[in-house]
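Student: Please help interpret what follows.
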Amino acid sequence: MSQFLEISGLCARIDADGQEKQILRGVDLSIPPGEVHVIMGPNGSGKSTLSYVLAGREDYEVTAGTATFHGQDLLAMEPEERAAAGLFLAFQSPIELPGVNNANFLRTAVNAVRRARGQDELDAVAFLKMAREAAKALSMAPDMLKRNVNVGFSGGEKKRNEVLQMTLLQPTFAILDETDSGLDVDALRIVAEGVNRLRAPTFSALVITHHQKLLDYLVPDRIHVMARGRIILSGGPELARQIDQEGYTKFLAEVA
């Protein structure tokens, strides 16, 4: 089976306060089409760094390894090229954009991707109809499209707005970097349902989380444990339940 995402021996570092810090130390990961995979692991293990490197954040330098997406060299692509190719990253801490209307921002993003894919752009009427329907499915307040991007939003509203972006952009591969952090049970369910509505043979996702509860709604195909900058163990959904009950100490001791 061909892979949506194929990562081999990926190493990356960041220049922090004038000192280079190696974070990823040989990540190997394959995600087939149509599957949702989850990465769990202790804080500082490199989970968010992996998501940033895949999305093309310039702060991080890839020092070794490869990452291909739909058979293309992902690491050679600019961030906007990755988005046009179908990759989406939902941030752990979505930023606020004062003075930028949420609906205008979303329409601009959607039409930029549509142009890159050779599709017709959406006019304001068609876009707003689509956006309102998607927002309603996420139980978002009607005025959130009229407000500035994430300004004055609660933590849960920011996360739902990220899922709204994902829904409208229709990616083929989504990375959710702890999008569930700080959410109550109802918001967790709504975020998970937003991902589940996209599930199809042409869509895959990589979800980074600490919470078993989210996985009850997502029902992932594969769980990966990350520690010390690499994947140390992979298994089925039962692995997440084991981690929830026992923590990471046992797994870390086995690879020490």
Remarks:
- The chain is about 35% helix and 30% strand.
- The radius of gyration is 18 Å.
- The domain at 5-96+172-254 is CATH 3.40.50.300 (Rossmann fold).
